[in-house]
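Aim 2 progress update. The chain analyzed this quarter is reproduced below.
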Amino acid sequence: MREYETIPEMIFENPPDPKDPYTYYAGHPVTAPVPRYVSKQKKKKLPWGLILVIALICALLGGAAGAGGVLLMQHMQAEEPSETDVSYMMQSIRENTAIEILEAGTGQLMTPAEVYAANVGSTVGITTSVTTNIWGFQTTSAASGSGFIISSDGYILTNYHVIDDADSITVSLFDGTTYDAALIGYDESNDIAVLKLDADNLSPVILGDSDHLNVGDQVLAIGNPLGELTFSLTSGLVSAMNREVTLSSTVTMNLIQTDCAINSGNSGGALFNLYGEVIGVTNAKYSSSSSSEASIDNIGFAIPINSIRGIVESIIEKGYIASPYIGVSVLDVSEEMRLYGIPAGIAIQSVAEGSPAEAAGVKVGDVITAVNDTAMDSSTLVDFVGSSGIGDELHLAIYRQGETLTLTITVGEQIQSALANEETQRTQTLPQGQFAQPGNPFGGFGERR
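Predicted structure tokens:
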């Protein structure tokens, strides 16, 4: 950068504007020296002829100086820089990409790297010790799985099958810290368990809304595949929603299907969307049952977070499982039944005594065609009731012996112990002053709850 000489000291007959502290020289701003003000003095007047001669001389000199200045400027532009000859190369000044952890609730999409950075500290590895009796000899083996932190004071969510029959449970955090975990409660039929660490100031995940998930959405899983490849990230897409799957435990669940790699050891880990929110709990994968079958890849499953959120909260807050309940057993209307004029829907096989369904007037043989204007089959009803709140009203469209009518059911509360060694609690009164009945929300529908 060139340096310019400052304007020599100037004398102003009128003081300059104090708001304009700069002057300009050759089109470039420079700092002007502090002006020196002088008082007006009378000067001797020159003869007019002499003034005219001086003016002509100044004009000639000014024109020559201007032309010289133009030539000099052109020369300087052609030869720049003027002091030394330097060759210039273009070099990128791009900085390395920094991962930014977004705050909760921003609603802003994140990259997979950002989701991992924001949540790996909230995921955990779980190791259990299991003692078994084989031919009279006791042996101890280890099992492993994954989980994630759901509260800053140490509550952990994982799968029930990860801690099933465990004598001891150890939880490992991403920073290497390990804790002995206590089992607070579980729901075997929904394959979830809640653990508690004696710790504070942990970083919990953000629970999302699995109802807003769509087929084709990108999802990410963080877990411990094989129990050795700790805190691994895998990614994929949602392949299907509400996929009915019967697990090896014979429990049937409606799950999120994904081609995100889910392997042994991933069970209990979080499935994230690209907003960094947990929308599922990974719990199963398809595998070949024999060596003769074709290889099966990337068919994994996760429990929708909305289907278990209320159960988890109930275990933590109440110490038992409180779930919505209406008290009916149902069966899908078959094609053969429809040949006799019965509409599509679900037929009532039984109504539990003292249940909300009985109080609403539901009878055996009724066909539910819709609930709150939503067409029904047995799977849809399971999800509909399961996602309802205690005390919510459901408006059922009923077909009964050639007539149609509408019945209103107030959703009741089914209560069961969260631990197998405790008796089922049945002390909570339902709407209409009735008591909860054991079993699923429909009083014994299939293998679902």
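The chain has seven helices and 26 strands. The helical segments are 48-79, 112-119, 160-163, 305-318, 335-338, 356-360, 378-386. These observations will guide the mutagenesis experiments scheduled for the next reporting period.
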